[in-house]
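Table S2 (continued). Query chain:
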Amino acid sequence: MFKEFTETAVAKAKEDISVPQGIIVLIAVASFVTGLIIGIICASGAKKSKSRKIKKSSFKAEDYARDLDFENEDDDEGFEYSF
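Corresponding output:
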């Protein structure tokens, strides 16, 4: 069955196929217009998603570093650091 399909496909591929230039031009124009429309739709969607980004982060590095408070750590845990 697979052999029949491949033989048919090879036979069709060996035939000379002529396509009128009008149809080729029509396909090219339709493809261009379709791509243009899809591009416009995607671009308008991208503008909306940019405006939805987080406006300003509430994270402040200075406050975070101050809250770490390395000076008051307990040294009773028994960890030794060697650098």
